[in-house]
Amino acid sequence: MKNQTTLRTPVSIEGIGLHTGHAVRATFRPAPEDHGIVFRREDRPDVALPALSGSALGFDHATTLGAHGVQIGTVEHALSAAYGLGIDNLDVEIRGDELPILDGSAMPFVRLFQAAGIERLHRPQRPIAIARRKEIRRGDKSITVRPGRGLTITYEIEFPHRSIGHQSLTIAIAPDTYAARIAPARTFGFMHEIHYLRERGLARGGTLQNAIVLDGDNILSGPLRFEDEFVRHKILDLVGDLALLGRPVEGKIHARKAGHALHAELVRELAEDAALPVPEAVAYRPIPSFAG
């Protein structure tokens, strides 16, 4: 059985928030066993937001945590990187109200965590093992889970664009394979969606440097990192949403045309099956021995 982990030393990263367009800074600090991943805002140090499904306010084009008037958005890529590298415990302080989008992938967070080093703690992980087959279906979208060793994800997508079409990928999630094959995949969107989001006050920080942007038959943001980069990013998003269970998952997951909303439904059901408590925002208490 694997032991829990955290970072060896604090690390910070700065950038632009995808939706606000504001400069933001995230600092990731070591945390002890069973702390989990907990976010707090620099301007509201009295409230801590655990990265658990019960703290999630919404999954509308980004995962947002919040309670009691405190929100932190766009947490999914950092959570995906932490889960992909097997990091269980972090104390995360945000200057701003969302994490930086960086290049639109999880790779900057992976490099940041690798530079900090990963510290193995004494207490073992407590994985959630999928005990029986389960399917969630909403029209032509579906997620099926079944028992298995480790975590293996199969994802299928289909878009009426010649650069995407039908894509499918199966991958066993482990630190090395995640870092090499999933983390570099960037978020993507269509130009007409970007116009719509900006009319709603979102995507103000979106550029051709932090997303794959498609318009008509063209890709406006340069060459792809992988021929199937689109489905790889969907796996990246699913890993980030699974992190909201607060514990590793063991089993096989097959997602077809799914997205954040269906991922969130799966996480809620797995949390109920495992009888996980539903958390609320809690008063933040510093961790003297891990303050760094």
Structural summary, described in words:
There is one protein chain. This protein starts with a strand and ends in a 9-residue tail after the last strand. It is of the alpha+beta class. A hairpin with a 6-residue loop joins strand 2 (11-16) and strand 3 (23-30). A six-stranded mixed sheet has the order 2-3-9-4-5-20, with helices on one face. It is globular and about 50 Å long. It has six helices and 20 strands. Helix 1 packs across helix 2 and helix 1 crosses helix 5 (229-242).
Major β-sheet, in short?
6 strands, mixed
Cα separation of the termini:
28 Å
Oligomer: single chain
Low-confidence parts = 281-292
Number of strands: 20
Strand content: 35-45%
Structural class: alpha+beta
Shape: globular
Fraction of residues in helix:
10-25%
Number of helical elements: 6
Summarize this structure briefly:
The chain has 292 residues and is of the alpha+beta class. It has helices at residues 76-85, 107-116, 175-182, 191-199, 229-242, 260-273, and strands spanning 3-7, 11-16, 23-30, 37-41, 44-50, 56-58, 64-67, 70-72, 90-95, 118-124, 128-129, 134-138, 141-146, 151-159, 165-172, 188-190, 212-215, 218-219, 249-256, 282-283.
